[in-house]
């Protein structure tokens, strides 16, 4: 009998939230099962039940036909279950080998730790997958991608029969993703049961055989990946197609006057960048990773030094030298790295929203006006449809999409003139994306100049009124709505600067 996992009528409740509602399905060995659904649909909650982090309120799960319930993740590991979360579970001060064998260090006959054996087996495993990782290297010195690979090697060294990946590619390059998929295919061929949580449809198409679709804590359907189109899966997930989502967005055909003018901007990372942004306009920035898009925005927000060039806001020359100065001038920046640069994980939703305006929430004698603070938080929770039982909820306990809404609410409370969004929908599902697009277009309609950096071509094309394309720190192309195609954007993203200059002059 091969490996199998069966969930029977699993339900899980949290205060004010029904996270899972009567989930039942069976997963067999030698297949990859992708979990697809909006943020908060229940995907990660089910994995945490399987891993012993949570206990179900109702229902049971069976492994190889035997009912079982793990009290802790350690129990799960002992029974051949490994869950690899997006947030890494590693000890940075320990070596690669020590992390991989953590909790089960091999011993010599005299009882001492057999470090030589640990290092040798780690080296063999790394070589098997073509990883250039020394067993004795401190994990904290590795890249995020290699830290993720250490997590995967932990599961393999334990010879786990059931392995779950929760958004594993968020920090990986294309080459590293290819390597991960190679590893997953090998594990599948070895007869493992593989669960794979992702919002990236192209990844699911490459790695999964079955797709389990969740919505609002319920299992909607289990479909064959090979015979079900992307559009069909999205319809099952959110009730409409991705094309419909973009088609429904209003676009400002006549944006207002230029509010931001950047001329010949030079920083340590960009060279001779010039562009304008208009009131009521959504200006998209496209390009390959490392093209310099984020670096332009960091300079505007006072995070990177400006060597040369001019920045004008409403006709007045400005040069923000810090984020505080940029905020005072009317810039707001929602950063790409939500967890490291966006949220304050250990404080409430309310605190995360109002942190940028605490001075205005103080009484004359310095006390926090808590009623006013709560009023603002409740207003933003309602207007941005932030899914939280109350404003006291820790932001770290919300889904990624709702965390992103809280960050956006924080900056909207500063009443910006220029709203900069760097990869605003990274790591969030299609349904949450649709809500984000609605909010972004509303900001533009209110007269803000909205700048959106996105590496997803359908997104930047569907959302923007105008697109600037960058390559190697320069703007290589400019496209207006009606001229947008993925082919044109990619052409500019991959062209050299001389081609770009010529094309822009001809235009």
What does this structure look like?
The protein is 36% helix and 24% strand. It is α/β, with parallel strands linked by helices. A hairpin with a 2-residue loop joins strand 14 and strand 15. The C terminus is likely disordered. The protein is built from 19 helices and 20 strands. The radius of gyration is 25 Å and the shape is globular. The chain has a six-stranded mixed β-sheet, with helices on both faces. A six-stranded mixed β-sheet has the order 16-17-18-13-19-20, with helices on both faces. The chain has a four-stranded antiparallel β-sheet with strand order 2-1-4-5, with helices on one face.
Task: Work out the number of β strands.
Answer: 20
Helix-and-strand structural type = alpha/beta
Shape from CA axes? globular
Strand order of the largest sheet: 6-7-8-3-9-10
Strand content: 15-25%
Annotation field: number of helices: 19
What characterizes the major β-sheet? Answer: 6 strands, mixed
Oligomeric state of the chains present here: single chain
Low-pLDDT sequence parts: 497-505
Terminal-residue CA separation: 66 Å
Rg is 25 Å
Helix content: 25-40%
